[in-house]
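Weekly sync, protein design subgroup
Attendees: M.S., D.O., the rotation student, P.L. (late)

Item 1: inverse folding check
M.S. brought a backbone from last month's batch and wanted to see whether the design step gives back something sensible before we order anything. D.O. pointed out we never logged the input encoding, so this time it goes straight into the notes. Structure tokens as presented (423 positions):
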């Protein structure tokens, strides 16, 4: 097998520079909570391919289901000749998302595509144009979702013009808004919506219940319910983007549950497919069914291999109770992060839920972001074999997203590496 160094040379000559990688090592195999590279090094996986391999890499049920499906048929296009597994995945989305009301679902290929379709559905159902999003939000890289995403570098720089009728309002960000309460932060956002957009113009309010790329920002308690209640009152569709938070990641099937919020629509992807590309929009039947027949779709949406993988991943999450596993990961990692934060004036906060945890690095004595130290710590982690990612508008958040099936030994080893890297 070629070495990572050789592969890097080939890559530079073949792969566009715009597509970059976090580590220079090329993967040979992966499973559970580790990856092995082509140079024979083992990595502890605190990334899960950006919150995707919740059930682990090559989870046995997923592998078996994909293999079995590949032998029967690989693609017909659900819009041409339908098959059961697509329907079954929609049934699972309906059963697992919050809210006992009547729902429908539709399947797509990527998170961005799910978000685009949620906006299409909300606009169609309400007949209104405006979409409200939040500071630090991340919703994708397609044209509409770039407009919905907050951060310019690297996501939007020189890629405009962007889609119109997108309005950004302040987020609840306890470390950075002076500890504004959830309801007060919601009032601040609602005031901007009412004064600058107008409730009657809003098709959708779109929010990540815990922000992902934007910095693992957990809004203050009461923020999400207040925003959802306002949307209901204004006749706007409340859309929870659970693409990163969904499928047991935060210790519940969906993060909206922690605040008792029942979104009108939920977007899902990532963990849903156990590593295969699949995404969904699920929510109120009257909204989903408002769209005319033929108005939603795509060649590959709900591809049979991806549906087989999703059904197997969901079964694995149920059988192994991976929501509980995520809570156990939180119980093991978060106190350790809090101890590190207490001893290090450069850690502004340890936060997160379940297996979606982070520390935000700041200049000692205040909350000025420390991106340089974040980069240095991440590099030291990589040198020592711990795969971690950064995030945040200011690039100063270290995030921890282990597969939910990771072993305690790997978690503890990962924390040791992190602690040494911070030193
Ligand atoms: N909504 C909340 O987290 C994807 C993006 C990585 P796609 N997050 C990882 C990168 O740099 O491209 C994401 C998300 C939330 C939407 C998306 C978009 O999902 O499957 O990447 O399109």
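Designed sequence read out in the meeting:
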């Amino acid at each position: 097998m070629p070495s990572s160094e050789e592969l890097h040379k080939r890559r530079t000559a073949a792969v566009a520079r715009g597509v970059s990688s976090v580590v220079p090592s090329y993967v040979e195999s992966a499973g559970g909570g580790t990856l092995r590279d082509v140079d024979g090094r083992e990595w502890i996986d605190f990334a899960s391919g950006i919150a995707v391999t919740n059930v682990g890499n090559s989870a046995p049920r997923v592998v078996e289901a994909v293999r079995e499906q590949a032998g029967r048929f690989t693609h017909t296009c659900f819009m041409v000749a339908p098959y059961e597994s697509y329907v079954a995945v929609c049934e699972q989305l309906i059963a697992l998302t919050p809210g006992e009301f009547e729902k429908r679902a539709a399947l797509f290929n990527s998170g961005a595509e799910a978000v685009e379709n949620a906006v299409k559905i909300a606009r169609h159902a309400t007949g209104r144009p405006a979409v409200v999003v939040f500071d630090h939000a991340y919703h994708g890289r397609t044209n509409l979702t770039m407009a919905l995403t907050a951060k310019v570098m690297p996501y939007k720089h020189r890629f405009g013009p962007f889609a119109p009728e997108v309005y950004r309002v302040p987020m609840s960000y306890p470390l950075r808004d002076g500890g504004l309460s959830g309801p007060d932060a919601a009032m601040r956002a609602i005031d901007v919506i009412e004064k600058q957009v107008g409730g009657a113009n809003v098709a959708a309010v779109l929010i990540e219940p815990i922000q992902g790329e934007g910095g693992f920002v957990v809004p203050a308690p009461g923020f999400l319910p207040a925003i959802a209640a306002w949307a209901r009152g204004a006749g706007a569709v409340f859309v929870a983007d659970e693409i990163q938070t969904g499928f047991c990641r935060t210790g519940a099937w969906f993060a909206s549950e922690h605040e008792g919020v029942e979104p009108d629509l939920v977007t899902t992807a990532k963990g849903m497919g156990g590593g295969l590309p699949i995404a969904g929009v699920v929510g109120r039947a009257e909204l989903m069914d408002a769209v005319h027949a033929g108005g939603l779709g795509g060649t590959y949406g709900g591809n049979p291999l991806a549906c087989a993988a999703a059904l197997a991943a969901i079964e694995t999450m149920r059988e192994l109770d991976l929501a509980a596993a995520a809570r156990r990961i939180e119980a093991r990692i978060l106190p350790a992060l809090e101890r590190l934060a207490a001893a290090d004036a450069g850690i502004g906060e340890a936060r997160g839920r379940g297996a979606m945890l982070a520390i935000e690095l700041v200049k000692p004595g205040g909350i000025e972001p420390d991106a340089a130290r974040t980069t240095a710590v991440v590099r030291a982690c990589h040198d020592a074999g711990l795969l971690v990612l950064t995030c945040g508008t200011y690039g100063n958040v270290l995030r921890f997203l282990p597969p939910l099936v990771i072993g305690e030994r790997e978690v503890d080893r990962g924390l040791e590496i992190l602690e040494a890297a911070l030193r």
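Discussion: Residues 72 and 304 are 10 Å apart (CA to CA). The mean pLDDT is 98.
Action: P.L. to compare against the previous round before Friday.
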